[in-house]
Specification:
mainly alpha; 30 helices; 63% helix; elongated; DUF4209; ERMARD; Endoplasmic reticulum membrane-associated RNA degradation protein isoform X1
Length: 666
């Protein structure tokens, strides 16, 4: 029997007891009127009386508190079931407005009426996400930087001042503490199956959220302040996230068959997978991804614990140990410093996809942003959901029996597998650098189309002499470029004109298409890439300043609004641009050659890291000065040429030695 068939729970015995049994041990019926006043407000004092404390240090006794609150939660659940939707809205909706997502909480009420276990779990994940975001907004009434982790947020002095410490202790029994029920983490990290989450805890959190709204309203009135909500994160440049073909119903139907047969799926979690695919079909894209991400995590955890021979890590950790989550599974080393074997099994493209969509700071970080309430669930884009679901389907295929060959080779599945197998990182700093370089090149390419005065008009201005350093500049650029030829693709660099614009564009495109291993880049590489990105940014700013300045000055020239000195300076600008363009293109070539060879260089002994940094910082300083000189405020073109000449002399001198080191290290 496959391991995915034999696992009946991912909750360790103590955690399973706390969530599934402890709150059911007291059989007494609790009167809802004890915690609900006649005007429909939550009687917090009656709720907090159920929180028990240890005699030793007066910290919360989570075991006794969960046991005591069990009947209260059941009473709230029964109470909500007795209400119609209209009655619930009248009595509670206004107290939920502070969350800025009232509709989500109304959905949770609907779910509780039918007690479908999968929907209850989904509702609880959405509830905790929205509640965390709202509590973060409240925190900012008193504090500056909102804690990233829910447990730190709930333990903060700021929220204790606003809501009261006793109220925060109640919340921490349900979410945010590894010693309590910890419902948020248990669900979002894929440890709990649908049948293991009692609906009464979801009902209680809905009830408590309304109670928090009542307390907050009083606080805001007394302190004469307004609760402001942080704007949602919006996924921009969705085209960058376009990896897989658009999923159709035929693909999703095959996926439903794969789910039932794949060893990647724990059978206890099967309802989550089916619900996720159904949600996608129904255009509920946020729901689909919320359901699917924890299942990707538990499926990968199954692989992780198998390949690293630590089956005990499949279960929830106790409060004294670490959970096995995405963070650890995607890391290079285990907590005992042994090499993580999961990347060997998943292979580099899949690992890069996971890092891109979950971890890299400039990526979408889908799981973090969903679980911490940073995204408007109503506007979650199909494009993002499509990538997550498609990637999940490829894992279902890869980790399935050979007798599923017909499904894996289906015409709608094969394109997904092909896309997954050749995926390259798009959000690693190296990948972002490549994108920056190409965008900068496009900007510089626009220079050739800038409006300019005729040569005859230039000749009418007395005192403007041809720059004597021009030929020297071109010679130095050619010499440096020729040194780089050995690192360039063939047919992309002309010996007659090594920095020709069209060839440079083709060269940079080919260099940027070169696959570079980004997984687990060593620190020296990342430090170098930081500098290279700064250089690229400065070059782009210079280009934009030149474009803007040239267009403005040309208009002024045509309209004859330039004074004599300004006319001379404009013509100096035009003269400088002719030589500045190849210099910037040379720097872009240098950057790109550096990034495609930097991994190999950093691993070799002959490589002098400090000298390498010195070389790059020299270029950075030059480009920073260039930004200053070409700015509208300075507009110093003679100084720009002088600066460029000095910089090229230094670059040529240092690059001779550096390139020799690169050659030895390659």
């Amino acid at each position: 029997m496959a391991l995915s068939d034999s696992v009946t729970t991912c909750l360790s015995q103590p955690v399973h007891y706390a969530i599934c049994k402890l709150g059911f041990e007291k059989k007494d019926t609790y009167d809802i009127n004890n915690i609900l006043s006649g005007n429909g407000e939550v009687c917090w004092q009656a709720v907090t009386e159920h929180v028990c404390y240890l005699e030793s240090d007066q910290s919360v006794d989570y075991i006794k508190s969960i046991r005591s609150l069990g009947p209260v939660c059941e009473s709230v659940n029964v109470h909500f079931k007795s209400l119609t939707k209209e009655q619930f809205i009248i009595q509670y909706a206004s107290w939920l407005h502070w969350t800025n997502c009232t509709e989500v909480f109304l959905e949770v009420f609907d779910v509780l009426q039918y007690t479908q276990t999968t929907e209850v779990a989904l509702g609880l994940m959405k509830l905790t996400s929205c509640l965390e975001r709202a509590l973060g907004d409240v925190y900012l009434l008193k504090g500056n930087d909102c804690p990233f982790l829910l447990r730190d947020l709930l333990a903060s002095k700021q929220l204790a001042v606003i809501f009261g410490q006793a109220v925060m202790n109640v919340l921490r029994i349900f979410i945010g503490s590894p010693y309590g029920l910890n419902l948020r983490n248990v669900l979002w990290h894929g440890f709990a199956s649908p049948q293991e989450i009692p609906a009464k805890y979801c009902a209680m959190l809905l009830f408590l959220t309304a109670g928090l709204g009542q307390l907050l309203q009083t606080y805001l009135l007394q302190n004469k302040c307004i609760l402001l909500h942080r704007p949602y994160v919006i996924f921009v440049s969705l085209e960058e996230l376009d990896v897989f073909p658009d999923l159709n119903n035929e693909t999703l139907s095959i996926a439903e068959e794969l789910v039932k047969l794949s060893s990647f799926v724990l059978k206890t979690m099967l309802p989550f997978w089916i619900a996720a695919l159904t949600a996608f079909k129904q255009s509920r894209y946020a729901d689909s991804v919320i359901l699917l991400l924890p299942q990707l995590e538990v499926g990968l955890r199954l692989l992780f614990t198998t390949t690293n021979k630590c089956p005990n890590r499949l279960l929830t950790a106790e409060s004294s140990a670490f959970y096995t989550t995405f963070d650890e599974m995607l890391a290079k080393h285990l907590d005992n410093n042994e090499v993580n074997q999961l990347p060997v099994v998943l292979e580099e493209p899949a690992m890069e996809f996971l890092w891109d969509f979950l971890n890299h700071q400039e990526g979408p970080r889908v799981r973090d942003r969903l679980s911490h309430g940073e995204i408007n669930l109503e506007a979650f884009p199909r494009e993002v959901a499509n990538q997550i679901v498609a990637f999940a389907i490829t894992l279902l295929c890869r980790f399935s029996d050979e007798n599923m060959f017909s499904l894996k080779e289906h015409t709608v599945i094969k394109p997904l597998m092909n896309c997954a197998s050749c995926y390259q990182s798009r959000f690693h700093p190296i990948s972002r650098l490549k994108k920056q370089v190409l965008e900068c090149m496009k900007s510089i390419h626009l220079w050739s189309g800038l409006p300019t005065v005729s040569e005859e008009q230039v000749q009418t201005i007395k005192g403007l002499e041809e720059n004597a350093e021009a030929s020297t500049l071109i010679l130095m650029i050619s010499e440096i470029t020729s040194q780089l030829v050995q690192y360039m693709p063939q047919n992309c660099c002309s010996s007659d004109d090594p920095i020709n614009s069209v060839l440079t564009e083709r060269l940079l495109t080919e260099l940027c298409d070169t696959r570079v291993c980004t997984l687990y880049s060593p620190r020296p590489v990342l430090e170098i890439v930081v500098i290279l990105r700064k250089i690229s940014t400065q070059c782009h700013q210079v280009s934009e300043q030149v474009i803007a300045g040239a267009e403005v000055r040309y208009t002024q020239w045509v309209n004859k609004t330039l004074r004599s000195r300004q006319r001379h300076n404009y013509l100096r600008m035009l003269n400088s641009i002719k030589f500045l363009s190849p210099v910037l293109r040379l720097i872009l070539i240098l950057i790109t050659v550096e990034v495609v060879s930097v991994h190999a260089v950093c691993k070799k002994n002959p490589f002098d890291y400090q000298q390498y940094l010195k070389f790059l910082k020299l270029i950075l300083q030059y480009t920073e000065n260039l930004v200053t000189y070409t700015s509208p405020e300075k507009n110093k073109w003679d100084e720009t040429m002088e600066l460029t000449n000095k910089a090229l002399i230094k670059i040529r001198k240092i690059s001779d030695r550096k390139l020799m080191l690169m050659h030895l290290a390659a």
